Amino acid sequence: MVGVGDEAPDFHGATQSGSTVTLAQLRGRPVILFFYPKANTAGYTLETRGFAEHYPELQRAGFEVIGVSVDSVETQRGFAEKCHAAFPLVADLDRAIARQYGVLGFMGVAKRVTFFVGPAGRIEEVVEGMLPGPHLKRALARLKSTPASAAAASP
């Protein structure tokens, strides 16, 4: 698994809207990249709804949020609607992104891991665990400790 200090691997992924997102296009902004095993299950719905609820304030502070699972674009679309997620949910059907980050589990789904990627593209923090609370809690703690001007600054 990539760790703190590593360069975050770039990726190209189809989102729930059918567009493509790359990590490189977000360079210059901090990114919260969270992996979850499957859409539409209780814990992952709770986590995604939490990120969706706080997305406007995260955006105002300069953060971008991206969710990734091995679900299809269609499944991600329905999940985004259900959770009111305005941020990209990436369909990693071929599991390439999960492999790049070292989070592909033995069942062929991504482990629940959140990577906090700094504006320069390096991993600043990694949160692992099956419970949804710590992932959002760390994101909100980082939000509170990051002045908006610093979060939105370009490298």
CATH topology: Glutaredoxin
CATH architectural designation: 3-Layer(aba) Sandwich
Count the domains.
Answer: 1
Categorize the overall geometry.
globular
What is the class in the CATH system? Alpha Beta
At the fourth level of CATH, the homologous superfamily is Glutaredoxin
Any chance you could write out the topology, listing elements then pairs?
Blueprint: E1 12-15, E2 20-22, E3 31-35, H1 42-60, E4 64-69, H2 73-83, E5 89-91, H3 96-101, E6 113-117, E7 123-128, H4 133-145, H5 148-152
Parallel strand pairs: 3-4, 4-5
Antiparallel strand pairs: 1-2, 1-5, 3-6, 6-7
Helix pairs in contact: 1-2, 1-4
Structural overview:
It is a single chain. The chain is an alpha/beta fold. The protein has a single domain, classed as Glutaredoxin (3-Layer(aba) Sandwich), CATH 3.40.30. Helix content is 35%, strand content 21%. The protein has a seven-stranded mixed beta sheet with strand order 2-1-5-4-3-6-7, with helices on one face. α1 crosses α2 (73-83) and α1 packs parallel to α4 (133-145). The longest helix is centred in the N-terminal third of the chain and has 19 residues, at 42-60. Mean pLDDT is 92; it is low at 149-155.
Q: What would the keywords be for this entry?
A:
disordered C terminus, single chain, globular, alpha/beta, 155 residues
